[in-house]
């Protein structure tokens, strides 16, 4: 759990441009993966930051 808090704090500390780039990079790396894996990663991302998870999920649709 500590790792998720640290990851969320890191994401919160980023500038908006960097948040967008990170979100796009994560979504791009997941795009051709199986849907079950995509969902698992989004679930883990939500534990770090709900906004990050939501933005990645939107890009995967």
Automatic annotation (TrEMBL):
Highest taxon listed in the record's lineage: Bacteria
Chain ranges of the Catalase immune-responsive domain: 6-60
Protein known as: Catalase immune-responsive domain-containing protein
